[in-house]
Structure formats: C-alpha cells, structure tokens
Design a protein that fits this description.
Elements: E1 4-5, E2 9-15, E3 22-23, E4 30-38, E5 46-49, E6 66-70, E7 77-78, E8 83-86, E9 92-99
Antiparallel strand pairs: 1-2, 2-9, 3-8, 4-6, 4-7, 4-9, 5-8
Length: 100
C-alpha cells in the first residue's frame, strides 16, 4: 500500500517477509514522530529499527501493540530510516507520522 499524505500527516501500512528488513517508506519524508501499530491479525512479532533490524535487535511488537518514535533534540528524522522485520511473512504494521 502506498503512503497517503495530508499537509501534516503521513499514513500507511507495511508488511514484511520473515528475516528481511523492509523500509516503512522509500520516500525521504522528514517527520517529527511516527506511531507503529502491529496488525491485529499478526501471528508473530514485528521488529523495528534501522536497516540492520532483526529478531535479535529487541523484543518487538506483539499483535495490536504500538510504539511511538519521536524526534530528539528538536531534529526531525526521515521516515525512510525506519525498517521492520517480522517473525511471520505477511505480518506488518500500520503507521501514522507527523511531518517535520
């Protein structure tokens, strides 16, 4: 699914292949924050991080869990710098980002 945009927000979803890091979005949108919400239909965890994200990176998000990442020291970050990996192929997240 493509990312949809408004003046202030970006909305989208991303699914993955087990063992493969996948960018949330390849477009370099500057954002202030992004909320990741694991799909309610997921059968496993979703791991989040940089391009080296993996199941060994952290505990990940269980079904329907969410996490918000925010800018540090007033600096926006690129949505394209966030990746996910999944335990089960086809699992994923919805995301909502506030433009920076």
């Amino acid at each position: 699914m493509a990312t949809s945009t408004t003046n202030d927000f970006l909305f989208g979803q991303k699914t993955g292949t087990a063992g493969t890091a996948v960018q949330l979005d390849s477009t370099e949108y500057a954002v202030k924050s992004v909320a990741l919400i694991a799909h309610s239909s997921n059968g496993g965890r979703v791991f989040y991080g940089g391009s080296a994200v993996a199941s060994t990176t952290q505990k990940g998000l269980a079904t329907s869990e969410s996490l918000t990442l925010s800018k540090i020291d007033g600096r926006a970050f690129l949505l394209s710098s966030i990746y996910i990996d999944v335990e089960i192929t086809g699992d994923g997240v919805d995301f909502i980002a506030e433009r920076g």
